[in-house]
């Protein structure tokens, strides 16, 4: 049996730990061995312990993520996480594997860890290519995990999205464009500039709309051909 990849999370935000630790637990090829909320504790840990992969926040007090990388002679393979895209170019000067913008969504997380396997452990690559069980979105001030198979469709409200599930609805702080990136394309697609639908939840297709649980979802002109082709194969 192949040894799991030892992962550490370094971030001053508890919410980031919650999201990343849940994503790590969903991957049997990964093992979370340490969590730190600052650079000093990370330095102390890595003096005595080894890690294969580090999820590192850039914007931390006292020691930033980039300063931490400078202090480590032999840092673990690193995936940076931050809410600020302006650090992207500078971060790649440190040889990091990838750069994740917060909030981090599971499909993007999977792409990032696949780069680790491509660079260091190719025999494990296929274990990362799994569809997510849930997506994590911000609802009010909390990060909520919504099971993928419960989602029926989503509707855009500017910088918010209503996520309609089989049990309840959520108003999440995210754009439709970003949500689309986080949903597996094998299961979801755009029906309209404001709507994303779960392909296997469609009950009926008409000329200008699809029905999901008796709710008509409009079909945008630019999406008609793709919807017709995708649903023909379902």
How would you describe what is shown here?
- This protein has 234 residues and is α/β, with parallel strands linked by helices.
- The protein folds into two domains: 5-128, Rossmann fold (3-Layer(aba) Sandwich); 149-232, LytTr DNA-binding domain (OB fold (Dihydrolipoamide Acetyltransferase, E2P), Beta Barrel).
- It has eight helices and 15 strands.
- The protein has helices at 14-25, 39-48, 65-71, 88-91, 106-119, 125-128, 176-182, 224-232; strands at residues 5-10, 30-36, 53-57, 77-82, 98-101, 134-139, 142-147, 151-157, 160-165, 169-173, 188-192, 195-198, 204-205, 209-212, 215-218.
- The strands form four sheets. A five-stranded parallel β-sheet has the order 2-1-3-4-5. Strands 10-9-8-12-11 form a five-stranded antiparallel β-sheet, covered by helices on one side.
- The chain is elongated.
- The two termini are 37 Å apart.
- The modification 4-aspartylphosphate is found at residue 57.
- Pfam families: LytTR (PF04397), Response_reg (PF00072).
- Residues 135-233 form the HTH LytTR-type domain.
């Amino acid at each position: 049996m192949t040894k799991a990849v030892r992962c550490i999370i370094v971030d001053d935000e508890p919410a980031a730990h919650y999201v990343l630790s849940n994503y790590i637990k969903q991957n049997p090829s990964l093992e979370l061995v340490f969590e730190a909320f600052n650079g000093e504790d990370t330095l102390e840990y890595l003096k005595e312990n080894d890690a294969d992969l580090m999820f590192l926040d850039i914007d931390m007090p006292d020691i930033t993520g980039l300063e931490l990388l400078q202090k480590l002679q032999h840092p673990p393979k690193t995936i940076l996480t931050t809410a600020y895209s302006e650090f992207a170019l500078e971060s790649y000067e440190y040889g990091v594997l990838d750069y994740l913008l917060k909030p981090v969504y599971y499909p993007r997380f999977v792409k990032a860890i696949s780069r680790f396997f491509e660079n260091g452990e190719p025999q494990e690559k296929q274990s990362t290519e799994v569809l997510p069980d849930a997506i994590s979105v911000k609802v009010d001030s909390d990060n909520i995990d919504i099971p993928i198979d419960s989602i029926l469709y989503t509707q855009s409200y500017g910088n918010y999205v209503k996520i309609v599930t089989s049990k309840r609805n959520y108003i999440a702080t995210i754009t439709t464009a970003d949500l689309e990136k986080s949903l597996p394309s094998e299961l979801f697609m755009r029906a309209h500039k404001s709507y994303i639908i779960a392909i296997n939840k469609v009950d009926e297709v008409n000329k200008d709309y699809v029905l999901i649980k008796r709710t008509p979802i409009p079909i945008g002109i630019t999406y008609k051909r793709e919807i017709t082709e995708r649903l023909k194969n379902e």
